[in-house]
Design a protein that fits this description.
Blueprint: H1 3-13, H2 17-20, E1 35-45, E2 57-73, E3 76-87, E4 95-109, E5 115-123, H3 129-134, E6 142-143, E7 151-152, E8 155-163, E9 167-176, E10 186-188, E11 191-193, E12 205-206, E13 214-220, H4 225-229, E14 230-241, E15 245-256, E16 264-269, E17 278-283, E18 289-300, E19 304-315, E20 329-342, E21 351-366, E22 392-405, E23 408-419, E24 424-434, E25 439-449, H5 459-462, E26 468-476
Parallel strand pairs: 13-17
Antiparallel strand pairs: 1-2, 1-26, 2-3, 3-4, 4-5, 5-8, 6-7, 8-9, 9-14, 10-11, 12-13, 14-15, 15-18, 16-17, 18-19, 19-20, 20-21, 21-22, 22-23, 23-24, 24-25, 25-26
Length: 477
């Protein structure tokens, strides 16, 4: 079938199946004191959606609850963070996320191995400074309800960690896998539908070579939740260095890609339409695997830090039937460098800034099929589709907080990301006012700009129509 069917399937569905197949979780930080908030959010997009059935105004009720219970079970600490969203409109974008849910036993004696911390469950860890900065979902899965403001979530399994003043070791093993979590989608009468602005519907028709326009009817060969989550993962990390001064980290893993893959089988069913027939596309959500090796290093001071990162991604061979078509999976390298500064030492209290670069350099594609189109059309455009939001990009940000009384403050944040490959920019502005210990207001603006819009492009080209403003009223418990 047409190459654009492949591209459309990937961009439209790939970020969504993580939640469609099951309810999967997000990211967290633990605190002995509980943190809870409820917010009423209102979003207004400045342009119409690509799908005219999707609204431009959204209302949601959001909540957050974070807490750590010490010595809750067998002298172990229990950590929890939950996030949720309830749609107050007709979008159906209802979500629940459990960024962290774990038991932690500290300083367990493992005989000749010394004392280690043992964690069971879902827990976020700093596997990569690059991935934490850019939220590309290379190491840890993401919550992608909102593609502009992605959130990391922890891996799920068994963590062992040991730390001395100069060396930190972390080991991870798991028989379970939870993929990225995206927009809510449904398959109705051969069409994939969603009320989210971050979902792009795959094409509903095609024109085979020398033929009339043909409608496309989609089918989904949905795997069971157990088939998806029963995937093994192994990871290890060695960090050398102290809280201040130079540091070096070597990290490796063999695990599933956090993004589900969507190979499909396409054929023309002439028995179901009078003239040109009906194009049927059967989608087979699958889990692919990759190996990652990262070398990172940097220098930390009390008010500044710099880091560099190099990661090699090797996609494992795909054991899929030859008749399936799919977008190419490419191994490659990720290179990144970043710098962050707190300006308090210069008398600018509450002001911080940062700058970082990301480069993604791909190898030749690894595919399960030959990408031939059923209509005879060339499939070369597939190579332009991106699994990750940016190929090469530069970002800088500023953040500042002013306080004039107890429990009264104003915070402002700005971030500008320029994508060299897309020749486009993403600008995000956010303000948050605290009127009291409980009552907060937030106002945010996101603007995307690129010369042209392409579903097979990066984040800015795909969602260039999603400029918006968002206001929130937040009550903190």
């Amino acid at each position: 079938m047409c190459a654009r069917v492949l591209v459309g399937l990937w961009q439209a569905l790939g970020v969504c199946f993580g939640l469609s197949l099951m309810s999967t979780p997000l990211q967290a930080q633990s605190s002995v004191e509980p943190r809870s908030s409820v917010a009423f959010s209102r979003e207004q997009f400045f342009s119409e959606a690509v799908d005219p059935a999707v609204d431009s105004t959204f209302s949601q009720l959001r909540w957050n609850y974070t807490r750590t219970w010490e010595n809750l079970l067998a002298s172990g600490d229990f950590g929890l963070e939950s996030l949720g969203q309830l749609a107050l409109d007709g979008s159906g974008e209802n979500h629940l996320a459990l960024p962290e849910l774990y038991l932690l036993w500290s300083s367990l004696s493992l005989g000749p191995m010394g004392e280690w911390d043992l964690s069971l469950g879902r827990k976020r860890h700093l596997w990569s400074a690059m991935d934490q900065e850019w939220k590309i979902g290379l190491w840890q899965p993401l919550v992608r309800w909102d593609e502009i403001h992605r959130l990391e979530q922890g891996l799920t399994g068994v963590f062992l960690s040991s730390q001395t003043p100069q060396i930190e070791t972390t080991l991870f093993v798991s028989p379970l896998f939870l993929p990225d979590q995206g927009a809510q989608i449904a398959l109705e009468e051969g069409r994939f539908l969603s009320g989210s602005r971050w979902f792009t519907s795959p094409p509903q028709s095609m024109i085979p070579a020398g033929e009339d326009r043909t409608e496309i009817f989609y089918e989904l060969d949905r795997p069971s939740a157990w088939q998806v989550i029963q995937q093994t993962s192994l990871a290890g990390q060695l960090k050398i260095g102290s809280a201040k001064g130079p540091w070096l980290a070597v990290t490796g893993t063999d695990k599933p890609l956090n993004q589900l893959q969507l190979p499909f089988e396409a054929f023309l069913d002439i028995s179901l339409a009078s003239d040109s027939g009906l194009g049927r596309v059967r989608v087979y959500p699958q889990v692919a695997r990759h190996r990652l090796v990262s070398l990172e290093g940097g220098y930390r001071q009390e008010e500044a830090q710099v880091w560099v990162s190099l990661t090699r991604e090797s996609v494992r061979p795909l054991n899929w039937p030859e008749e399936w078509e799919s977008l190419p999976l490419k191994s490659g390298y990720f290179a990144s460098v970043g710098y962050r500064q707190d300006w308090s030492a210069l008398g600018l209290r509450g002001l911080s800034s940062g700058v970082s670069y990301l480069g993604h350099f791909e190898d030749t594609p690894l595919t399960a099929g030959d990408f031939s189109s059923s209509g005879g059309e060339a499939s070369s455009p597939l190579g332009e589709s991106q699994r990750y939001p940016f190929r090469q990009a530069l970002a800088w940000d500023l953040a500042s907080t002013w306080s004039w009384a107890q429990d009264q403050s104003l915070s402002l944040g700005f971030r500008h990301t320029y994508s060299f490959s897309e020749r486009g920019s993403l600008v995000s502005l956010q303000s948050r006012a605290q009127a009291s210990a409980q009552l907060h207001w937030s106002l945010a603006l996101d603007v995307l700009g690129a010369p042209n819009r392409q579903e097979a492009g990066g984040l800015i080209q795909r969602y260039g129509h999603n400029d918006r403003i968002r206001a929130e009223v937040i009550y903190v418990f």
